[in-house]
Sequence to fold (74 residues):
Amino acid sequence: MAKPDEQFLKDRLSMMESEGWLDLIEDLKKIEQSVVNLDTMNNQDDLFHAKGQLHIIRFILSLEDATKFTIEQS
Fold:
């Protein structure tokens, strides 16, 4: 059975307060900085790979703000 939206969002915020989540966010911020280094890219494939990595990293990094915004709007 699916959770109600409100409970889903509250559970997500609760997860984001855990030590493991905070550690993950710190690691992702470090990875994000290294991925944007154009000097490490040798060809178009490297560029597209980095672009994909950044898309996923930035989605996860923005998840907490997006969740809080959604709660405020409901």
